[in-house]
Each structure stands twice: as C-alpha cells, then as structure tokens.
Amino acid sequence: MSEYRISDNHADTYDEWYKTFRGAVDTYVDLELLKKYLPKNKNARILDAAGGTGRITLPLAKMGYSVTLCDISTAMLAVAKQKMLREGVYDKVKILECDIRKLYFADESFDFVLCWDSAIEATKELIRVTKKGGRISVFLVNRCRGAIDLFPEDSTAALALIKSRSHYTYHHGEKYKVANEEEAKKLFEAEGIRVLDIYAVCGWMDVLRIPEKVLNSRDWDEEFFKQTTEMVLKLSREPSVKGMSRHLVLYGKKM
Tell me: the pLDDT tens digits for 112-126? Predict the structure, then answer.
C-alpha cells in the first residue's frame, strides 16, 4: 500500500521535525488540548491508532497509562519500540502492525481511541473498538484550509474543494479526505458519537508569519515559545477562525 511505503521511507527522520520549534509547538498544543479528555483511571485501555513512532504514545506511557500503539509501517514501529525501550516505558506499551481500516480488536475494546493521522475513512472501525461511554479523538484534514493552500496551484480544484464538489486533497503524495466542522460533526453523530469539542490545530505558525529560521530552529527563546503556544491554543479554540487551520481535532463520547 502507498501509505506503508511512504511511512517506511521517512521513519528514520520523522521525529526530527518534532524537535524543531514548529514541531515542538504542535506537540505542546496537541497534548494540552488532550489532557482534559484523558481517563482519570490509569488502568484504562488506550489505543493510539496510526500512531507512527509513538509521538503521543510516549507521553501517555510516561503519565502511567497502558497504551496499544498500532501502525501500518514496520519501520515506524521499529523506531517506536526503540524509543519506548530508551525511555523505560516499554512495559506500558503494546506495539502492533495493522491497518487501522481493518483493526484486529474486538468490539468495544478500548476506553479511549486516538487517531491523529487524518484517516477519516477509518471512522467506523475506530468507533467500533471504542467502548460505550468511552472517548475518541480523531484528526481530520480541514476542508477550508485545504482549499486555501491549493488555490495558488490549482484555483479550479480549490474552488471545487471549498464548494464541497470535491472531497479529497493530496499532501506529500498521500490522498486525504477533507471535512469542515459541520461535516465532521454530522459524520460522527451519525455513528453514535456525541461530539464534545472540535479544535482547529496545525498550520497556525504560517498564519502568524513566524520566520522560517525560527520555525526550523532547535534552540529557541523560551519566552517566545510560551507566547506562541498561548497564541496557538487561543486560536485553536476560537470559532471565528476555525477554517484557517490545517487540521481539525474532534473529541467525542460513544453513546
């Protein structure tokens, strides 16, 4: 599958991006938004679906949660295993190779299911393995921002995307289905999910016009980092600019 080949090809360098200012801001914001939805019971079963090298699995394991990490990429999971061993949390993590569109798990296996890989096609499977009363968090490619980014390259395709005549966009050779807030809410509610919140995440630093030199830096001013994360968190919760982010992250509860 194309997803497998692409993920395998950049497994060794994937984590390097998150060591930059831009990547560190995104990770900080993602985790800050996640915290209020995490199970209070540390014995809860958590699935990090399409979790790659364990970017989110690692901090969850460090918090004391037991996490099942699955991904289609053998190379990504190999990197994840080494990270968990190095950080001393391998005993808290179960690593499995699988396609999230056809998960191995029984119905209602997990208290919390995360899929931060913009795989909207896997929605039914992710919900299937979530327990009733459990929570789910899914990243979606933002329709409006997708159209904005596409417009300089192909204005006709961009207009089709924003008018909902087209439903897919491409990034780094991979095809993604897009959604706006209304579409995302309708999709998940139709599958028995009560939508708790939808936040606008990723892509804000381009909007803020932060210089590339700063974005790519691995040694930054901590005060500016704090100001940036505060600004991005505020924007992620602001309804009036929700179409400007690259992704939407939905949090819901299975009824």
Answer: 999 998 788 899 999
